[in-house]
Amino acid sequence: MSNTGKREKNAWLGLSEPERNGVFPLCKEYLEFLNTAKTERETVAYLRREALKNGFVLFQEVDSLAPGQKIFMDYKGKAAIALVVGEQPLDEGFNLVASHVDTPRIDLKGAPLYENAGMALFKTHYYGGIKKYQWPGMPLAMHGVVVKKNGQIIEVNIGEAEDDPVFTITDLLVHLAKDQMEKKMSEGITGEDLNILVGSLPLEEVAGDEGQAVKIKEAISKILCQRYDIEDDDFTSAEIQMVPAIKAREIGFDRSLIGGYGQDDRVCVFTSFKALLEVSAPQRTALCVFADKEEIGSVGNTGLRSFLLENVIADLFNKSGGADYYRVMKALRCSCALSADVNGALDPNYEQAFDKLNSALVGRGVCLTKYTGSRGKSESNDAHPEYLARVRCLFDDNGVIWQIGELGKVDQGGGGTVAHFLSRFGMDVVDCGVALLGMHSPFEVASKADVYSAYKAYRAFMQEFK
Ligand code: MN
Ligand code: MN
After folding, report:
1. Does domain 11-103+261-464 have CATH number 3.40.630.10?
2. CA 264 to CA 256: how far, in whole Å?
3. What is the DSSP letter of 437?
């Protein structure tokens, strides 16, 4: 058995002719997905739509479980589970691939609208780990929901269509940026500076009226109310996210890479979902978790630190002979998982931040990461070598191009994934995903060959890992 790991093989060269031909159509679909699903809600809606088109049924429509059955569970429209029931009893555990649907972005505050210097603006509170200086000077689209007091949900999506307006955070002109440029990068733009320009046209009846305040904020309120049925107070029960209004695109003369917003972690969401669509009659039940809130610590009742997974397994047992605590915990303990999340690829512009020997390289296949964390592996899962040996054997047996990679230099920082929340149940878990350039930037970069390798890795794992 040849060793395809340890970055020895370029993924493009390691793919067979028909596989290389398969990379581009898969990635074309991935680009469309990135442009369709820019928030967790839009991602879950996409998954639900595609699952139902591909033979999955909603869990609430299922009476009992049978091998081969394909089930989709929607959690508050913000997280989801999709599974193919295996031949073995559920009690013997699942092959689970867990990714996350949330991405770093800029959220609106509860009372966002104000007026200053002849303009209307929105106050914001960013979500997840962003480098704040990357967000000014960027066209932004407004996505999300506003829930009226009567429960009616207004879906908002402004700035994606060709003739839609967009929004932006203005940057300080370089001519006057002497003080700003002398600051540390982390302080050049602060959280309270991330205010979004949303208009400047005053209400007509008072425009130009000498001595009277020009009502620009009120004019925007009026538009929001008349055009979208959103009143100022409705922002109290809203979830509005400002995301880059730029399309995902192919990168390079050879079109070998993909640039786009939100690839952390939608690249793993998409590839694991596509893989699950192809799983048929597995021995062990194959299950994808698409979790929310990973970027802020997997908190909340749609994050994996909650009882979401126990509830899912209890629900499944409830429809197949009855759920009790022991059965649920045993099934979780006997499961095996890939924490499907991205890693940082060695960046030629910032080599100093990486350990070249142990960092993932672009185009060398899906990346296995034994541990994440920071300050000496703190908060990481640190997978057992016995488990890693079985996973790499699976990948080699199935021709998956893979590499090992840890996140940058030891003392440069670090990060976490959902791996340690899964490991609490006793299941074995290791991080496995695509290595990105510019992770958490408004335009992250992935290699198409790595996207394909991830899809192949997840498919092999869910179809036949034992
Ligand atoms: Mn992630
Ligand atoms: Mn992230």
Report:
1. yes
2. 18
3. B
CA dihedral defined by 135, 138, 144, 150, rounded to 10 degrees? 90
Structural tokens at position 113: 């609208």
Q: Which CATH class, in words, describes the domain spanning 105-244?
A: mainly beta
CA dist 337 and 428 (Å) reads 6
261 neighbors 244 (Cβ within 8 angstroms): yes
Sign of CA dihedral 27, 33, 38, 40: negative
Q: Do the strands 139-147 and 167-168 form a parallel or antiparallel pair, or are they unpaired? A: antiparallel
3-state secondary structure of 259: strand
Give CA–CA dist 223/201, Å, rounded: 11
Per-residue model confidence as pLDDT tens digits over 231-282: 999 999 999 999 999 999 999 999 999 999 999 999 999 999 999 999 999 9
pTM: 0.96
Q: Where in the chain is the domain with CATH 2.30.250.10?
A: 105-244
55 alpha carbon to ligand 1 midpoint, in Å? 28
251, β-bridge pairs: 257
* Distance from the alpha carbon of residue 294 to the mean position of ligand 1, in angstroms: 7
Among the listed residues 52, 84, 61, the one whose alpha carbon sits nearest the alpha carbon of residue 281: 84
CATH 3.40.630.10 domain range(s) in the chain: 11-103+261-464
CA 264 to centroid of ligand 2, rounded, Å: 5
Kindly give the distance from the C-alpha atom of residue 321 to the centroid of ligand 1, in angstroms, as a whole number: 36
pLDDT tens, residue by residue, 131-155: 999 999 999 999 999 999 999 999 9
Give the integer Cα–Cα distance in Å for 157 and 328.
40
Distance 442 CA to ligand 1 centre (A): 14
pLDDT tens-digit map of 432-463 = 999 999 999 999 999 999 999 999 999 999 99
Sign of CA dihedral 142, 147, 153, 154: negative
Only one residue has tokens 């940082």, namely: 344
| pLDDT one-digit tens code per residue, 100-132 | 999 999 999 999 999 999 999 999 999 999 999
